[in-house]
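Materials and Methods. Structural model of NIF3-like protein 1. The 435-residue sequence of NIF3-like protein 1 from Solea senegalensis was retrieved and submitted for structure prediction as follows.
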Amino acid sequence: MSPLVLMGCRKGTWTFVSLIHRRLCAGRSLICPSALFSSASTVSPSLSFPPAHSQSLLTNRQIPVSLHPPAHLSSTRSLWHPTPCCSLMELKEVLQVLEQLAPLALAESWDNVGLLVEPSKSRPIKNILLTNDLTDVVMEEAEAMSCDLIISYHPPLFRPIKRLVQGDWKQRLAVRAVEAGMAIFSPHTSWDSVKGGVNDWLVGGLGRGQVSVLSQALCGASHCHKLEFTVRNTEELNSVMEELKACAGGASLQYSTSRADNGGIHVGVTCSDSVLPLSVHTLLPHTAASQSLNILKLEKPPLPGHGQGRLSVLDQPVTVATAIQKIKSHLGLNHLRLAIGWGKTLESSVCTVAVCAGSGASVLNGVKADLYITGEMSHHEVLDAAAKGTSVILSDHSNSERGFLTVFRERLAVRLPDTVTVAVSKADKDPLEVV
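The predicted structure was written out as tokens:
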């Protein structure tokens, strides 16, 4: 008899689903059973979409949504005991779990995220190593543990490369990974953006508060434009729509019609950037349509809770001195760099704090807050913030991110079978030290 797994609750009704296929265990369905349960001490990402009337603007790409069961049912690996058919996981199955935890669609457009190195020969994933940066010493650590998959927060391959030679350290690491049959995956800004990700973890170091996103993530909408025009009758409508459908490669079109004031038919058709020029060209021979044509740019709906940077209005304000100690403890550091805001002292109250992991100046710029926390800012960016009365705490770039690896390890491990070991690198560290 196949094991029964508690899938989730909707409107008070519990549904039991029988797991009869290996792919369900590994997350090949849209909602993996294992993705429904997260550690009680962590926050599982969940994507909230706009109301139903806005769905026509969304892309057909499906982003998995993690559900939240009652607290007494969340927490441990014991909620999902993999059967023998599920005891081994392929690379693509682990990637699906990673996608559920932080969809790559949330990453910044300039970023290079996802699977960066894929071995030619498939093998079960048994050992996963998490690191903030993939360096020579981390690669040695991965080789020593017979690692199958390296999850490097920062992408070791970022800019296009024309050759793979030993003279370049990043190319050398890529070659070593290929030779060892190791895959390399990088989440980078998708972890920054996702609700419950790096930035939520960072701002949580000062305690509870009302948290908002500084740079809101938007839903990836395939239809970015709306064409509005009028046709004379139903026959012309059918003719125009068939031509527009051909422009879209035969795909179904999202459109609406209504009776126009002049007795014709008013039409609204949504289309993507790539199809827009050809669609307009298609309408030009139709006199009524071309003379009445309006092109509207559609705004992408926001994804609440997701995006870059966080602003927290603290439930319990602290002093600058206390904030320093809290962040040292949260990041596991003995030293931080501090710039006191103009007119402020170590005993000044911190009621609002803005954070951005890594190099956060572009996200924090112009944000009104008592305190900025980030990894690094330039000399002049710190001066600008301090002159406006905002104190600044700098931890060095990767120190503002690395602590999240331990949190993520727990979230990932609970979604994988016991045959998979997930470890956090012991060799990984920030290249800068206080001496």
